Amino acid sequence: MTDIRLRRLFYAGLALLVLFEIARVYFIMPLPGSQRMRSIDVAYALHSWRWPLRVLFAALVAVGARAAWHGGWLRRIVMPVSLALAGTAAYGSNVTMSADRIFIAPESVDMQPADRNVVEMARLVVGIDIDGEARAYPVQFIGYHHQVRDTVRGTPVLVTFCTVCRTGRVFHPVVDGRIESFRLVGMDHFNAMFEDATTGSWWRQANGEAIVGPLKGKTLQEIPSRQVMLAQWLTLHPQSLIMQPDSALASRYARSFDYETGRSRSPLTGSDSASWREKSWVVGITVNNASRAYDWNRLLRETVVNDTLGGRPIVLALAADRRSYFAFVRPDSLTTFSVRGDSLVAGDKAWAFTGRGQAGQLEPVNASQEFWHSWRTFQPETSRY
Q1: DSSP conformation letters of 219-273
Q2: Residue 44, CB half-sphere, CA atoms under 13 Å: how many?
Q3: Which of 24, 199, 211, 352 is deepest in the core (most CB within 10 A)?
């Protein structure tokens, strides 16, 4: 083979390697245009074949390296510069732009009771209660980590949050009877994706569904959760444990309340104060496979919504802090609730936001405050209230 052809192999190998590394990152990170494509299969194929392709491109570079080096001083400058550029692209895609290196999962989770808590009472938390054991995970922390592993009453839990979708979800991280580990790998349609350690399948954070890989179609069991202010959570669950900041990562946590209150105007995580825009807030509820979105601005005005969804009468209510919300099944379609302070009221009967009341326990309904673009993307059959 002539030196010219060998040199072409060298530069072709470098060019293909650079293009491959850029494409591999482009399809799974929030870069211009990437999150609006149906490109998950391409992204997964590039990820799955990354090492064979890298070896192939490296072989082309190795075969042509000698010819690319010889032939004059200019080639001896261009060759190492080209190698350096390719190395920079490879480093950037695997380190600088690697999702699980940008957002580091905590090595351990420090849970403390209220009297040892350092988290501000006005912070939003994702709260869970399993068999009477309550725990709260501040959005300030889980919004950065994206996932936190914990065990509650002997039950393993995976607490997740995607700030670009504003989706907080808690899952039982068990697949085919086996406790599974996950890492943040990127995003699809602006929603965080996790890769399981066993099969390398990619799972969507918004609904716990495996969307590509050997386990495609499987779904993690969701654990009911609430998104409320910490003060409200402790009023309802005074014995709750609260996740504390990881001291090694304290500088990475958001200090302001702008994201939580909706004042942020960041292109990715900011909110739109108008209704039914891409970044407007809605509360999404699914009952008996029927989904509906409730405009947050309307809920702020009316504080309570009595509705019927999936054939069941429900109520969605806003607490006095105007940031915590709750949803329950109404006892019957004739019972109409109003809100009085931090209680649901119907006639002469009242219920706390735990669902406990004078006329028995209300059945809770899982509700999620998120961006409208997220809810309609992952609940395409949704209606609007």
Answers
A1: BPEEPP-EEEEHHHHHHH-TT-EEE---GGGGGGS--SSHHHHT----TTT---S
A2: 19
A3: 24
How is residue 78 written in tokens?
């261009």
- 353: helix, strand or coil: coil
CA–CA separation, 200 and 296 (whole Å): 37
Residue 18: count of CB within 10 angstroms of its CB: 19
Both structure tokens of 100: 């699980």
Q: How far apart are CA 123 and CA 231, in angstroms?
A: 8
Nearest-10 crossing angle of helices 40-48, 3-26 = 130
pTM of the model: 0.93
Strand 281-287 relative to strand 210-212, pairing: unpaired
Q: What does the chain come to in residues? A: 385
**Distance in angstroms (rounded) separating the CA atoms of residues 267 and 246:** 27
Gap between the Cα atoms of 146 and 297, Å rounded: 27
Q: What is the pLDDT of residues 236-254, one digit of tens each?
A: 999 999 999 999 999 999 9
208: nearest Cα among 227, 223, 190:
223
Smallest CA-to-CA distance from 53 within 80, 83, 26, 21 is with: 21
* Helices 73-91 and 3-26, packing angle to 10 deg: 20
Q: How many CA atoms lie within 13 A of 171 on its CB side?
A: 28
Task: State pLDDT tens for residues 292-306.
Answer: 999 999 999 999 999
Single-letter amino acid, residue 197 = A
